[in-house]
């Protein structure tokens, strides 16, 4: 096995043992010897040191075939570190987690949105190194990056991110060259969905996650570990479904896309045109200001709010009918909406979905989406490295 021999050449028995246990599952010292060809004395010495360091735990399961029971060894969650990265518009957010996707450290760094992608990725690599260098945990074995926009089927290339003007950016290759560990890239909202699907015990079939901020993104993730697989890239395209014939021109080049009705920049522009620049104060959620104006009977506000809520509900009803998730999470700008807006959205969706789905339908605001994206990226890094 190439990776194993490379570890042996480096003389890192810790890495060999962790990799062996990851691939074989819990195993006794004898079994590890059979797999690796290492001597009993070498294994015994390395295992004792790793148990002392908290990297390995002794399990109670016996292997009867050798005559006397043998203690099996299991890697501790702390024995693994992975890095999750989220590239947002103008901000890089990254964190290190263990094998249980628990975030140990988190940092953010701003970047110039007009910079070429290679420059932004160089900065990502610098930030990952800085985080890893300052960390005292186990070595980092993999990195996953969440980016708004579509990725290729092998999770190596960012195909298109309209907001940043990125097209066919070889994210994984670029970062692997700089960091020397496996790197994968995925759609950021899919990673948010992945993180939430792993955390929420009530979720049986899966989660659909709708994130609205500068654009509209959807993520769908099944419940349970190890079942995450890259699907068609369509989750990144939901925002570019036409909802208004001959509507406003969208950044994608089409007209009347969902984004042009519900995404924050378009919504702000529309409010400004209606003479409601006062609603646009950056420290206040847009949908909250809109609700307040609509409640006062302002005709433009009522019209804009109705458009936003109807179109979000329409899109989500289609998502529910297609994927039948048992939980729909709305993040970003929609999570900041007042309860009355969320309630109205729930009612409209319930009216529009298939009768069999109405009773169990659940929609909740998702807070801390950015952290979920970093945690989801780390979870993906674990899954592709076979650590979870
Ligand atoms: Zn569009």
UniProtKB/TrEMBL annotation:
Domain of life per record: Bacteria
Family matches, as InterPro entries: ATPase_NBD, ROK, WH-like_DNA-bd_sf, WH_DNA-bd_sf
Signal peptide region: none
Family of this protein: Belongs to the ROK (NagC/XylR) family.
Protein name as annotated: ROK family transcriptional regulator
Species of provenance: Pseudonocardia nematodicida
Lineage, uppermost ranks: Bacteria, Bacillati, Actinomycetota, Actinomycetes, Pseudonocardiales
């Amino acid at each position: 096995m190439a990776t194993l021999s490379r570890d042996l050449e480096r003389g890192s028995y810790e890495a060999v043992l962790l990799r062996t246990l990851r691939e074989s599952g819990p195993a006794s010292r004898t079994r590890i010897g059979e797999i690796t060809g290492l001597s009993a004395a070498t294994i015994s010495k390395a295992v004792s040191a790793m148990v002392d360091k908290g990297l390995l735990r002794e399990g109670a399961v016996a292997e009867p075939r050798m005559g006397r029971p043998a203690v099996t060894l299991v890697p501790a969650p702390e024995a693994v570190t992975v890095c999750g990265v989220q590239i947002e518009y103008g901000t890089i957010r990254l964190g290190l987690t263990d094998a249980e996707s628990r975030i140990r450290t988190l940092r953010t760094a701003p970047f110039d949105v007009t910079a070429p992608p290679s420059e932004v990725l160089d900065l990502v690599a610098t930030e990952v190194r800085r985080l890893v260098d300052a960390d005292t945990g186990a070595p980092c074995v993999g990195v996953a990056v969440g980016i708004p926009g579509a990725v290729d089927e092998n999770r190596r290339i960012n195909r298109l991110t309209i907001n940043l003007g990125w097209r066919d950016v070889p994210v994984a290759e670029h970062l692997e060259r700089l960091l020397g560990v496996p790197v994968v890239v995925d759609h950021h909202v899919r990673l948010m969905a992945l993180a939430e699907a792993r955390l929420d015990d009530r979720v049986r079939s899966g989660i659909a996650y709708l994130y609205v901020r500068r654009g509209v993104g959807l993520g769908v993730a099944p419940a349970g570990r190890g079942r995450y697989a890259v699907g068609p890239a369509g989750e990144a395209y939901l925002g570019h479904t036409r909802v208004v014939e001959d509507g406003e021109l969208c950044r994608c080049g089409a007209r009347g896309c969902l984004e042009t009705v519900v995404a924050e920049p378009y919504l702000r522009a529309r409010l400004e045109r209606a003479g409601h620049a006062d609603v646009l104060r950056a420290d206040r959620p847009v949908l909250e200001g809109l609700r307040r104006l609509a409640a006062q009977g302002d005709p433009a506000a009522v019209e804009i709010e109705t458009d936003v809520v109807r179109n979000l509900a329409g899109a989500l009803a289609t998502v529910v009918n297609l994927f039948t998730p048992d939980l729909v999470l709305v993040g970003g700008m929609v999570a900041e909406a007042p309860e009355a807006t969320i309630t109205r959205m729930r009612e409209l969706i319930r009216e529009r979905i298939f009768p069999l789905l109405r009773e169990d339908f659940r929609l909740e605001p998702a807070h801390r989406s950015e952290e979920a994206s970093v945690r989801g990226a780390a979870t993906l890094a674990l899954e592709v490295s076979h650590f979870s």
